[in-house]
Each structure stands twice: as structure tokens, then as C-alpha cells.
């Protein structure tokens, strides 16, 4: 069985950053600045500078012409937009109109069948988005298509009439319509079906809309349904459980977004894809078994599932999107399928209870903030083929004690191990050529061998490494950045190479035990 934090700044751990003092040579008063501006203006009068200023309108005109040449489509599209009353629309190639935006504040609205004499056939995506005045909408029989999220977040909309003429309906047009209790369609509608208050598209056997007004309890999706559409159950806070038929093949983007009372769901073996954000915000979901048929888990699929303690991932999965398990704060242990080769950005960020995870041997890439603020993470393996560790990848993994990085890893991003205050045993890869900014700030190691290929040590790279006693700078290093070893209070010995061309003035600031350091003032100004 597979068992699948706020970000604070470093000073909270007792290692203050260096602050810049105000420059007393710079004028601070408003009056002084105004006086300087006036003096400068008088000097400009009757000079060539004033003549240059007269050229500004011509320059602006030329810039506008350049933008028109570079982006002709944007200007043309806006030019093609027509207005009829409170409706903005565009004519299509067949001469019919597509409604782009409703700008009025009507409550009981009968959408006209014609706009400017052209038959209205399409209600475009987001056309009525956030029209909170709407209570009742009657769509005319000229309309054949309702676009994606056409009435998104119309909070007071309660009744909608859909004509038989509609042939195509996009991604849940009524997502976040929290008052919508009645959709009227004919019993023999050729393209739509309404079953127990749930709207279906017959064209693709898709569940389109589940009302937020339906009573609290579980729901059984009817047999024959193939797709749970995008945002179909968007923020349905009364949904507590779900049973899916074996005919379901995919779950769309944000299908169960913010279904915060959803505690259980079965995923049948017919499913192959979980869309982006599919279960994002399902805070009551405690366990889930993904069937072996699932090969791809979309970005943010389980983000903010804060009660999720157990997750069984299929062995056949080959892709897990960014932020897939971000802020699953109850997850304790994870084992990923062997087919996974990439750990995306923020995949396990804020998994504050995660104690151990085993990465598959095929992993070559660990993205930015992948394990950020995994405070309880004590053990993780880094596979031999990993070449890239992104920015803030293990930021503030405060329980991580030891780590061996493979020699194949040539890049470790800024802040990758920032604030890993228990990390005392670390082996750096021989292929590393730059120690980036903040990368080991606050770590607990006493000694560290910097690889011979390294040519630069970035700003604050080892800031606040209070146990570090000695360090040898390799012979190829040319620059040491600002505060690179600042507040290394136990540092006693540094071996500097002759290759250095720049050492920041505060690179070794507040290192009280470091004595005998040569005069580096000649290296404090970069070439």
C-alpha cells in the first residue's frame, strides 16, 4: 500500500540579513529635489536639449505606428467589435453574430435573437461573467452554441431557459452560479438532457453542470456517462460522495474544484486522465486510489487536499503535473511510480507532514520549490541521473539531515536548500560549476567540499551556516558574492585561490573567529 507551510524569511531563524544604511550624501528633502529640478530646467532653456524634447511627439507617433505593424490583429479585432445596446458582438463569416459581452445590469433578461440585424447564433465564452444583477435569462431560439463559462459567477442567477436550437455547449457555462436552481429544457431536446437537476451534453456523453443548490449528500453518476466535464461540480459544497460508472474515461479540468465536503470517490479502471485541478480544494478527501489505467495526473490535481493521508498512485503513470500535491498537509509518505522522470514545480510544496519519499530511478529533473516547506521531511533519495535541482527545491526542509547529490547534477538553483537547519551531511556533485545565491543559507554542516569546477559563489550562498568551521575555495573560483559567508560565526579557516577577481566587501562579514584573512580590498570592485 502506498501512503501518499507559510513561508517566512530567514531572519526568523535568528540570522538577520544585512541592511543598507541611508546615503547621507544624497538629498533627502522634497524642497531640495524640487530646487534641483527647477535649476536643471532653466539650464535646458534655449539649448539643444529643449529642441530634443520637441521631438518627443514624433517619437511617440513612430512608436505607435511600429506597434500597429507588429500587432495588426489586436487592433483589427477591437475594430471589428460592434455594439447594439448593452451587447458587444462580432460578425462571423456566415454573417451571424457572436455575443462577446453583456454590459448591462438587467435582472430578468430576454436575450435578443438579432444584434444589429444579424441573427445571434453564439453566446461567446465568459459573455455574462460576473453579471450579478441577473436573476432570469431566456436564450433565444436563434442560438446554436453556448461557449465556455458563458455565465460564470453570476451569483444571483436562478432560472435559465435553453432552447432546442442549441447543438453545442462548452465547458460548464454556469460554473459558480450559486443560486441557479432551475434549468428549463424540453423533454426531447436533441442535444441536452436534464436528469435530477444535472445537465448533460448528449453529443459527447458529458456531465456538464451539477447545481450548487442540490441537497447535501452523495451522487451516483448515470451509466453511459463518458466525461466529467471541466468545472462540472465547481464549488459544490453539498456534495459528500461520488460513484462513477465504468464508462467514465476522463475527469476534466477543475471538475471537483473546492468540493470541500467530498469525502469519498471511486475512480473506475476506465479512467486514463485526471485533469488540471481536478480535485483542487477537496479538503475533506482522506484517501484515494487511482486505477492502473491512469497515465497522467494534471497540474494541481490534488492541490489543497489538506486531509489527504493516503494516495495510491498507479504504476503506469508517466506524468505528474506541477503543484499536483501542493499543500496536501496531511500526507506522510509517498512512493512514486517507476515511470516518472520529472518532479515538477511545487509538486509537494507545503506537504508539512511528509516524512519520507522515494524518487524513481528514472527521475532526471527536480523542479523549483518541489519540496518547499516540507518541514518533517527526513529522508529522500536523489537518483543518479538527476541533472537539475530548481530554485527553492528543498526550501526550509528543516528536518532533512543528510543528502548525497549525484555527480551528474550540474545545476542547483538559488535557495535550493535555504533554511535546511538540520542538514549536516551533504555531498555536492562534481559537475557543479556555480554555487547560486542563498543555496545553502542556514545549513548545519561543519565542513563542505566545494567541487573543483565551481567558478562563482553567489550572494548569501552560505549565509548563517553557524556550524561551518572551514572551507576551501577551489582554484577556478573568480567571484564571491555579497554576504556569501556572512554570519558564519564558527568559521575559522578559509583557503582562498589566486584566481579571484572579485570578493564582495561583506562576503566574510560577522565571522568573528575568522582571523588572518588577507587584504581583499583590491578585489571589491568587479571589472
Structure, explained:
The chain contains four helices and 40 strands. By secondary structure, it is mainly beta. The chain has a domain at 75-214: Leucine-rich repeat, LRR (right-handed beta-alpha superhelix) (Alpha-Beta Horseshoe), CATH 3.80.10. The strands form ten sheets. The protein has an eight-stranded mixed sheet, with no helix packed on it. Strands 1, 2, 3, 5, 6, 8 and 10 form a seven-stranded mixed sheet that branches. Strands 4-7-9-11 form a four-stranded parallel sheet, with no helix packed on it. Strand 1 and strand 2 (87-91) form a beta hairpin. Residues 1-54 and 72-76 have low confidence and may be disordered.
- Order of strands across the widest beta sheet? 12-13-14-16-18-20-22-24
CATH superfamily membership of the domain at 75-214, which one?
Ribonuclease Inhibitor
The residue-averaged pLDDT reads 87
Percent of residues in beta strands: 15-25%
Based on helices, strands and strand pairing, what is the structural class? mainly beta
Please count the helical segments.
4
Count the beta strands. Answer: 40
- What gyration radius follows from the Cα positions, in whole Å? 31 Å
Distance between the termini: 59 Å
Overall 3D form: elongated
CATH architecture of the domain at 75-214: Alpha-Beta Horseshoe
- CATH topology of the domain at 75-214, which one? Leucine-rich repeat, LRR (right-handed beta-alpha superhelix)
Helix content: under 10%
CATH C-level category of the domain at 75-214: Alpha Beta
Unreliable runs, pLDDT <50, ≥5 residues? 1-54, 72-76
How can the largest sheet be summarized?
Answer: 8 strands, mixed
Amino acid at each position: 500500500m502506498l501512503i501518499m507551510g507559510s513561508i517566512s524569511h530567514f531572519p526568523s531563524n535568528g540570522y538577520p540579513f544585512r541592511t543598507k544604511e541611508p546615503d547621507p550624501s544624497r538629498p533627502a528633502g522634497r524642497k531640495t529635489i524640487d530646487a534641483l529640478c527647477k535649476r536643471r530646467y532653466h539650464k535646458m532653456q534655449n539649448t539643444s536639449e529643449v529642441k530634443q524634447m520637441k521631438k518627443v511627439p514624433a517619437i511617440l507617433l513612430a512608436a505607435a505606428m511600429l506597434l500597429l505593424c507588429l500587432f495588426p490583429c489586436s487592433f483589427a479585432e477591437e475594430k471589428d467589435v460592434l455594439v447594439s445596446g448593452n451587447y458587444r458582438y462580432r460578425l462571423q463569416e456566415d454573417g451571424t453574430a457572436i455575443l462577446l459581452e453583456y454590459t448591462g445590469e438587467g435582472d430578468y433578461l430576454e436575450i435578443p435573437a438579432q444584434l444589429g440585424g444579424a441573427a445571434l447564433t453564439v453566446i461567446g465564452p465568459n459573455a455574462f461573467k460576473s453579471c450579478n444583477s441577473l436573476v432570469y435569462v431566456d436564450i433565444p431560439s436563434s442560438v446554436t452554441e453556448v461557449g465556455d463559462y458563458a455565465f460564470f459567477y453570476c451569483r444571483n442567477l436562478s432560472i435559465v431557459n435553453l432552447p432546442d436550437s442549441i447543438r453545442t455547449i462548452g465547458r460548464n457555462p454556469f460554473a459558480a452560479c450559486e443560486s441557479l436552481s432551475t434549468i428549463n429544457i424540453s423533454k426531447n431536446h436533441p442535444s441536452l438532457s436534464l436528469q435530477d437537476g444535472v445537465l448533460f451534453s448528449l453529443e459527447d456523453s458529458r456531465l456538464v453542470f451539477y447545481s450548487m443548490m442540490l441537497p447535501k449528500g452523495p451522487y451516483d453518476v448515470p451509466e453511459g456517462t463518458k466525461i466529467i466535464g471541466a468545472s462540472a461540480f465547481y464549488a459544490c459544497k453539498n456534495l459528500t460522495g461520488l460513484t462513477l460508472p465504468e464508462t467514465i474515461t476522463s475527469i476534466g479540468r477543475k471538475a471537483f474544484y473546492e468540493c470541500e465536503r467530498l469525502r469519498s470517490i471511486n475512480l473506475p479502471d476506465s479512467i486514463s486522465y485526471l485533469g488540471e485541478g481536478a480535485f483542487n480544494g477537496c479538503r475533506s478527501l482522506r484517501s484515494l486510489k487511482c486505477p492502473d489505467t491512469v497515465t497522467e495526473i494534471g497540474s494541481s490535481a490534488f492541490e489543497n487536499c489538506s486531509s489527504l493521508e493516503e494516495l495510491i498512485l498507479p504504476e503506469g503513470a508517466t506524468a505528474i503535473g506541477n503543484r499536483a500535491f501542493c499543500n496536501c498537509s496531511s500526507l506522510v509518505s509517498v512512493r512514486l511510480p517507476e515511470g516518472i522522470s520529472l518532479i515538477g514545480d511545487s509538486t509537494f510544496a507545503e506537504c508539512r507532514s511528509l516524512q519520507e519519499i522515494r524518487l524513481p530511478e528514472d527521475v532526471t529533473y527536480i523542479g523549483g520549490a518541489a519540496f518547499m516547506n516540507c518541514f518533517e521531511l527526513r529522508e529522500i533519495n536523489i537518483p543518479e541521473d538527476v541533472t537539475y535541482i530548481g530554485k527553492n527545491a528543498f526550501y526550509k526542509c528543516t528536518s532533512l539531515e543528510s543528502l548525497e547529490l549525484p555527480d551528474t547534477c550540474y545545476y542547483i538553483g538559488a535557495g535550493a536548500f535555504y533554511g535546511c537547519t538540520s542538514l549536516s551531511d551533504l555531498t555536492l556533485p562534481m559537475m557543479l560549476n556555480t554555487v547560486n545565491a542563498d543555496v545553502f543559507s542556514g545549513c548545519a554542516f561543519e565542513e563542505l567540499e566545494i567541487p573543483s569546477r565551481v567558478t562563482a559563489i553567489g550572494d548569501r550562498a552560505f549565509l548563517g551556516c553557524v556550524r561551518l568551521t572551514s572551507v576551501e575555495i577551489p582554484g577556478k573560483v573568480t567571484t564571491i558574492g555579497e554576504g556569501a559567508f556572512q554570519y558564519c560565526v564558527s568559521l575559522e579557516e578559509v583557503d582562498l585561490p589566486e584566481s579571484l577577481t572579485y570578493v564582495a566587501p561583506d562576503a566574510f562579514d560577522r565571522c568573528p573567529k575568522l582571523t588572518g584573512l588577507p587584504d581583499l580590498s583590491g578585489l571589491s570592485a568587479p571589472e
